[in-house]
């Protein structure tokens, strides 16, 4: 299931009861591929109404409580890199990505990234607007760090309020605007506003890196990637190999609101998740896979994996190998 065909401007699923399969298909067309789970297996109550305005897809999504997961398999089926912004109109929910959890209520905004797994937990009936931009449409305007995702931004004050009102108007007029000759300019304006909101939000964060800092960060990431299987991999080992101080490396990654330990952990978890989803590693035990990627303790691996993917390694393997072709 890939990304939408933008030659078809409108996607509508409006029945009072639709199957989870139809809901997933509609969500993939207007947002990204998602795995939906719901207490009632047979039917799901909800509606999706969307339109594509040039390169931007905007949707009004309403439904009952459910969990929507953009997991590793969904990421691999996403045909393009996207930034998504959601405006909560009714109901409460949580958006989880990169180990952060953003709680959203009435008129809260949150952004997320299609290139990495995320999870929506909608604990009650909800109504929201979701707008999806090609990554390049926003990064052309503002350099982004991965840490822009899963933060709650108020839509009731300042620039957040202007963006929220713009999204509400854009969504209400979506069908007319989709066929407008000014559609490219309209999509550009929306990207400008969301880019401006991110720029304002990131002003309170550390300033941009120099080229030297960026080079050192890339060297650090490469060293981590090359040495993940070493169980003793840490900041001191990286610093010694790169000829830099561990204190400097710690300061460097703080600009991304992370730590070197966290970078190592997430990279190991991603490799383990990949192996768990592949049938060619079906004969490897979970403990063997964890040990291969540098986890010295199976218990620590299981806790960390569940915290990151919201599933135990065994559950994750069962789901992904059963759906693999």
Automatic annotation (TrEMBL):
Pfam name, any one: HTH_18
Key word Transmembrane present: no
Domain spans labelled HTH araC/xylS-type: 218-319
GO molecular function terms attached to this record: DNA-binding transcription factor activity; sequence-specific DNA binding
UniProt xrefs under InterPro entries: AraC-bd_2 (IPR035418), AraC_XylS_family_regulators (IPR050204), Homeodomain-like_sf (IPR009057), HTH_AraC (IPR018060), Tscrpt_reg_AraC-type_HTH (IPR020449)
Source organism phylogeny: Bacteria, Pseudomonadati, Pseudomonadota, Betaproteobacteria, Burkholderiales
Keyword annotations: DNA-binding, Transcription, Transcription regulation
Protein name: Helix-turn-helix domain-containing protein
Chain coiled-coil ranges: none
Taxonomic superkingdom: Bacteria
């Amino acid at each position: 299931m890939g990304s939408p065909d933008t030659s078809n401007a409108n996607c509508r699923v409006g029945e009072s009861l639709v199957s989870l399969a139809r809901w997933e298909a509609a969500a993939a067309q207007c947002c990204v591929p998602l795995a939906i789970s719901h207490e009632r297996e047979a039917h799901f109550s909800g509606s999706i109404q969307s339109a594509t305005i040039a390169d931007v897809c905007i949707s009004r999504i309403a439904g009952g409580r459910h969990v929507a997961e953009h997991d590793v398999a969904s990421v691999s089926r996403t045909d393009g890199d996207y930034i998504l912004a959601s405006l909560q109109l009714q109901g409460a929910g949580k958006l989880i990505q990169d180990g952060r959890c953003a709680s959203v209520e009435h008129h809260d905004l949150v952004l997320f990234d299609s290139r990495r797994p995320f999870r929506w937990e909608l604990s009650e009936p909800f109504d929201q607007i979701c707008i999806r931009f090609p990554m390049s449409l926003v990064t052309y305007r503002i350099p982004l760090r991965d840490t822009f995702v899963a933060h709650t931004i108020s839509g009731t004050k300042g620039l957040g309020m202007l963006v929220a009102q713009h999204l509400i108007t854009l969504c209400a007029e979506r069908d007319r605007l989709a066929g407008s000759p000014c559609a490219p300019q309209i999509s550009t304006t929306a990207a400008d506003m969301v880019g401006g909101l991110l720029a304002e939000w990131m002003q309170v964060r550390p300033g941009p890196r120099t080229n030297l800092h960026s080079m050192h960060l890339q060297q650090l990431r490469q060293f981590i990637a090359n040495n993940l299987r070493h169980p003793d991999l840490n900041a001191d080992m990286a610093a010694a190999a790169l000829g830099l101080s561990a204190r400097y490396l710690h300061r460097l990654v703080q600009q991304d609101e992370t730590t070197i330990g966290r970078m190592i952990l997430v990279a190991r978890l991603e490799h383990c998740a990949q192996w768990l989803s592949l049938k060619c590693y079906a004969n490897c035990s979970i403990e063997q896979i964890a040990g291969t990627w540098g986890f010295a303790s199976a218990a620590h691996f299981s806790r960390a994996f569940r915290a990151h993917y919201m599933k135990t390694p065994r559950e994750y393997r069962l789901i992904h190998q059963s759906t693999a072709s």
